[in-house]
Write a structure and sequence with these properties.
Blueprint (H helix, E strand, L loop, with lengths): L1 H16 L1 H25 L6 H6 L2 H18 L5 H13 L11 H14 L8 H11 L3 H22 L5 E6 L5 E12 L2 E10 L15 E6 L2 E8 L4 H28 L6 H22 L12 E2 L2 E2 L4 H4 L7 E5 L2 E2 L3 H8 L5 E7 L5 E7 L10 E2 L11 H50 L4 H12 L6 H20 L7 H12 L12 H14 L1
Antiparallel strand pairs: 1-2, 2-5, 3-4, 6-8, 7-12, 8-9, 8-10, 10-11
């Protein structure tokens, strides 16, 4: 027991001395930083922070670390130091491709065994490199094939039970150029695994290990392993898409188990296992993406209602139980069809929100909650943008609502003026007809000479009526008053107050503000004073 405990301590020490341990942690942080940056670009906010996405899979990863390590130690799966260096280099080489699926050790170990099988005999002058190449030649194909099978089974189960959590919403363009939503499931499970190496102080117990290990003594090493998964879901809920792919991966893993058993008796069959796993995994993802992109987006804009693309954790929407894919039909009793309309409806009662929601089973339900100061301006719901300019920030959406209200008020005002103008035209037309009748009756009693005199008098009459002159004078007077007082003429009060607030606001970001007349006058006065 003392020997086993000492070997475990040495294995843990090797784990913390391994450079790949820290490289993997940094890469996982880097991937999540890129995700947060993209979410801020699409929605002006992040959905999940970096730390939560790194820490949340650790619980389930620890469970699978224990299970996979128990299987590898029980079977006696041992790897040569040269092969461990090879898979470490392969993992680093695939980092720039920024694909979590390719950084999974299922892919890395499969590529490693194919390289070992087809690698020709090489010799170098450096003795350390030659020793690594000798390790590759003596690597057991059976051990690596069993390891790949175990890793694929663990990966498929992890995708089924944890891969659909914390998916990231995104905004993309459809084939028709419209902005639609999609979800990106990208997950890393960091799980160190115990292996046996043919160097150490441990000996077998007859029935253990199952596989023969060359040499009498062996040791234990703890290696940094990571399983990765990535999938873009466009035409259905992320939960359904991820589980569909997870079931297919599990089916491939179960179909490979008979080949692993056969390879125990015929070692050359072990070469087929990594080839089948690599081809099957890529086919599953490629076919799913092709089918998914060929269908209509599940998160496209609707004529009535707003489909939820994402829900911020801890927000009012999360407390109300709103989920991805549900449709908000009414907000505070008003039907909604755009983000601007939804925000405007929320402002009708800024302290309380009542929603009518159509869930993913097409069943209508009610959700309500209080809104507190500091909550998200859309209560934590993320939607597809209203137009081609993308999602708006709080200030942009607020200004859009004010401008829209201003335009609607001006339109109503113009319609009212147009109606009054029609009524005035009808009155003027009736008066004009009456005057024509009076003139015609007078012309019947006059001579032709009087007709010529009358036509000359009519030509001297002004073309603009007195009422029109009064209207013009009133217009110019209103415009002059507006110029002197600084209050824009013909604008709604809401928009005017918004513009006043925008002018008075002094932000450090607005360094591009042009010079105003007052600033120019002050500069001229300072220049004269200096002269």
């Amino acid at each position: 027991m003392d020997v086993i405990g000492f070997e475990i301590l040495k294995a843990v020490g090797r784990f913390f001395l391994h450079p790949l341990t820290y490289v993997m942690i940094l890469v996982i942080f880097w991937y999540n930083l890129r995700r947060v940056k993209r979410e801020r670009k699409d929605f002006h906010t992040r959905v999940y922070d970096v730390v939560s996405c790194v820490v949340s899979p650790l619980g389930i990863s620890l469970i699978f670390t224990i299970l996979v390590s128990a299987v590898t130690l029980l079977l006696g799966i041992h790897l040569q130091p040269g092969f461990l260096i090879l898979i470490s280099l392969l993992w680093i080489v695939l980092i720039p491709f920024r694909n979590a699926r390719w950084l999974s050790m299922t892919t890395i170990v499969s590529l490693g065994i194919l390289i070992v099988f087809f690698l020709p005999e090489l010799t170098f002058q450096h003795p350390l490199v030659n020793s690594w190449l000798n390790d590759l030649e003596t690597t057991s194909l059976l051990n690596v094939a069993l390891l790949i099978t175990v890793l694929l089974i663990a990966e498929a189960i992890l995708v089924l039970i944890d891969g659909w959590k914390q998916t990231s919403p995104a905004i993309i363009k459809s084939k028709r150029g419209k902005l639609v939503g999609e979800h990106r499931a990208s997950r890393f499970w960091f799980m160190p695994v115990f292996f046996i190496i043919p160097v150490g102080e441990l000996t077998g117990a007859g029935w253990w290990p199952v596989l023969d290990i060359p040499g009498t003594f062996f040791g234990i090493v703890l290696l940094p392993f990571v399983l990765g998964f990535r999938l873009n879901i466009h035409a259905e809920l992320p939960l359904l898409g991820v589980k569909r792919v997870g079931k297919q991966l599990l089916l491939v893993a179960l179909s490979v188990i008979p080949l692993a058993i056969i390879s125990y008796f015929y070692p050359l069959v072990a070469v087929l296992i990594p080839a089948i796993i690599l081809i099957a995994r890529e086919l599953i993802f490629v076919l799913y993406h092709r089918k998914d992109k060929g269908q209509t987006s599940f998160f496209a804009r609707r004529e009535s209602g707003l489909r939820i693309v994402g829900v911020l954790p801890g927000s009012t929407a999360a407390k109300m139980g709103l989920e991805i894919g549900e449709i908000i039909v009414k907000t505070n009793g008003r039907e909604v069809y755009s983000q601007r309309n939804f925000y405007d409806a929320l402002q009708q009662n800024s302290a309380y929100c009542k929603l009518e929601v159509l869930d993913t089973n097409d069943e209508l339900r009610f959700a309500q909650s209080s809104i507190f100061q500091g909550d998200h301006f859309q209560i934590g719901c993320l939607f597809v943008p209203d137009d081609e300019f993308g999602n708006l920030s709080y200030r942009g959406l607020r200004s859009s609502v004010v401008i829209n209200q201003d335009r609607s008020e001006l339109t109503e005002h113009e319609k009212e003026n147009e109606g009054e103008g029609h009524r005035e035209d009808e009155v003027v037309a009736s008066d004009h007809e009456k005057s024509k009748e009076n003139v015609s009756s007078e012309n019947d009693d006059t001579s032709p000479e009087d007709d010529d005199h009358t036509s000359d008098d009519q030509s001297d009459q002004p073309l603009v009526s007195q009422e029109e002159v009064v209207d013009k004078e009133a217009f110019f007077k209103s415009a002059k008053d507006a110029y002197e007082t600084g209050k824009p003429y013909g604008q709604a009060e809401g928009l005017t107050s918004f513009y006043d607030e925008f002018r008075k606001m002094k932000s450090e970001r607005n360094k591009w503000r042009p010079k105003m007349e007052d600033d120019i006058e002050e500069q001229e006065k300072k220049k004269e004073y200096n002269d």
